[in-house]
Amino acid sequence: MIDPAARIHIPAQSGAALVLKQGQSMRVIDVEGEQVSDLLCFAQDDTQEVLSAGHTTDYNEKLFLSTGDVLYSNRSNPMLTIQHDDVGRHPLLYAPCSQAMFEHSYGAKEPHPNCHDNLLEGLAQYGITSSQISIPLNIFMNVTISEAGHINIKPPRSKVRDYIELRAEMDLIVAITACSAGACNNFHCTPIDVEIFEEA
Ligand SMILES: [Zn+2]
C-alpha cells in the first residue's frame, strides 16, 4: 500500500481546488456512501482549455464512464484517465448544481450551498470565472435513461469508502466538490476525501 502524497478532506456541501501534475493520480473517496462529487479540470498552462463533456462522450462512445476511459478537453487532448473504479458508472451530463438551479427546479427562496459556487471558490485563485464553469464529471451520480431519452436521478450506488482513481495526462487545475443537492445524494449530504499519489 502506497501512502498518498497529500490528503484533502472536503466537508459536506463544500469544495476544493488543487494542482495535479501529469502522471500524478487522484483518488476520490465516498466517505460515507451515496455521495456525488462534481469534478471539473482545466489545463494549468492555459485555462481556456477545459474538460469537455461533448468530446469525452464522442471519443469514448458512451454516456457513462468507468475504468480505462479517458476524459478529453475542448481541444481534444486527453486530460484524465480513469485507472480504478469501485462503482462502474459515472455520467458527464449535468451542469453543477447552482443557486439558479435550486430556484428553477425546487423554488428555493433562500441562498442554498451549491457545486457551481463551490467549484468557483476554489478556481478563482487561478483566474477562472463563473462563465468558464462547464459540465463536470458527475462522480458517483446514478442516473437512468429511458428509451425515449428521459433521465431520472436515483440514489448513488457507491458504498462507504468506494473510490474512483484518475491519472492526469497533462498538468491540471482540478476543482472538486461534495455535492450540495438533495435528490442525487439520497437526501443526505456527506463529505468526500481526495488522496493524491505521485507518478508510479
Ligand atoms: Zn452539486
Walk me through this protein's architecture.
- By secondary structure, the chain is mainly beta.
- The protein has one domain.
- It contains three helices and 15 strands.
- Strands 1-15-3-13-8-7 form a six-stranded antiparallel sheet. Strands 2, 4, 5, 10 and 14 form a five-stranded antiparallel sheet that branches. Strands 6-9 form a two-stranded antiparallel sheet.
- A hairpin with a 2-residue loop joins β4 and β5.
- The longest helix is centred in the middle third of the chain and has 9 residues.
- It starts with 5 loop residues before the first strand and ends with a strand.
- 41% of the residues are buried.
- The mean pLDDT is 96.
- Bound molecules: zinc ion.
- Zinc ion binds next to loops.
